[in-house]
Amino acid sequence: MIKIPRAREFAAGYQTPRRVKKGGAGEGGPDAAKTADRARFKAADILLYAALPAGIIVLWWILSALKLVNPYLIPAPGKIFSAAARLLAGGELAGHIRISLLRVWSGYLISAGAALPLALIFHESPPLRKIFHGIFETVRAVPPLALIPLLILWFGIGEASKLAVIVLATFFPVFLNAESGFDSMDSRWLELSRSLELSFPRHLRSVLIPAALPQIITGMRLGFGYSWRALLGAELFASASGLGYLITDAQAMARTDRVFVGIFTIGLLGVIFDALFRFLAARLLPASENFSWAAHE
């Protein structure tokens, strides 16, 4: 009897299970050695990642202490840290972060919720894809920030115009990666699905989504980066709250230290969310993304 692999088995490259050798009780076995090696590599990676930022901060601190840089243009790290501490203590920074995150996640989820089903529809209907191809390519070529004046005229300076900018910035990275993932699926899986006469829901759940999952996750990760940048661009133009507003307001008051606080907060949040996407990708996808094909009798 032919066995239809589950989604996780598709992503892992459905193969015949191999017997794992066990080490002796006193030796710890090869698995223990591999775990220790991985721990050492992770520690080395952390040191490598932290070396350059730490070196830049130390150099920055030295140059500021020696008064070799203009303190108005580039404040000392201690002054920036003090400004961040005051903004946190007063709750102002947390409020701007909360508003920006609410905007970006709302627009991101709306965009992803539209892009993924549409990519599947275009995969299943090539004539429909050809009809919309010209319009999509034209809209994709226009930077979302260039549409901000028009969006403000249409939707005003409220939340709707900012969400529209985020949706436009996020849609195409998610849509194009998902569409490419569906189109590049191994034809042997399609043949197997047809031969078993799977219903479309079963075909979607067991074949299409597992095969396209790596590129879907890549598109989701890229899309969030685009949405984050688009949101901050929109907040710089028309907003009374959010991290973009924090930066423009600080610039108007000649508070360069607060400008740096806003910039560093944006960068730190971007790193955190990118790490979250990489963590989810590591959990959902195997270490090897080779989609091998096998049927088990």
Number of helices: 11
Going by CATH, the homologous superfamily of the largest domain would be: MetI-like
First-to-last CA distance: 5 Å
At CATH level 2, the architecture of the largest domain is Orthogonal Bundle
In short:
The chain has 297 residues and is mainly alpha-helical. The protein is 76% helix and 0% strand. It folds into 2 domains: 30-69; 75-284, Orthogonal Bundle (MetI-like fold).
Please, could you describe this protein's structure?
This protein has 297 residues and is mainly alpha-helical. It folds into 2 domains: 30-69; 75-284, MetI-like fold, CATH 1.10.3720.10. Helices cover 76% and strands 0% of the residues. It contains 11 helices and no strands. Helix 3 (77-90) crosses helix 11 (256-284), helix 4 (92-124) packs across helix 7 and helix 9 (200-237) runs antiparallel to helix 11. The chain is globular, with a radius of gyration of 25 Å. Residues 1-27 and 287-297 have low confidence and may be disordered.
